[in-house]
Amino acid sequence: MSPSSRPTVAIVKYNAGNVRSVQFALARLGVKPLLTDDPAALRAASHVIFPGVGEASSAMRFLRERGLDDVIPSLTQPVLGICLGLQLMCRHSEEADTTCFGIFETDVKRFRGDAKIPQIGWNTVHHDDSPLFAGIPQEAHFYFVHSFYAEPGHQQTASTEYIVPFASAMNKGNFHAVQFHPEKSADVGSQLLKNFLAL
User: Which residues does the annotation mark as catalytic?
Assistant: First the structure.
């Protein structure tokens, strides 16, 4: 990728973990992202990544305090939510009864059952051949860490099963999101990030 063709990537800065591993993953692809909570910088970027590991209600509170709950849903360039980012792009989360962005028309539920919660580790992903999954085989293994999941719905582009089937990727227009961590998912995760940057 030549310097002139590299996308300008902004990572949403808020009180959620896992940002550094996303920065490292992008650096391996030759991209130096801007970590920012500035609305103008987010709107100016060619691509925006909304990652996160954390708790839904405190994350939404932080985003609202900075006006980012209005900014993020209004973005028009490709946006990728990761893990908590996906969940906050849904309507509502059972985690502390949190109202979220409502970009995706589905709700976030807590896993319940006898299996270990949170799900931590590798699991398979069955996708619908959307551009985000170009060159990635069906049932590829991605890395997950989560106690909550998005219910299946018409905007899902990939599914995974852990206790129950859930949406492991979603899409609405320029908004894409994945429950797994592509930045921790070896070659298939790197391919997914490349695909996103090519959108």
Answer: 83, 181, 183
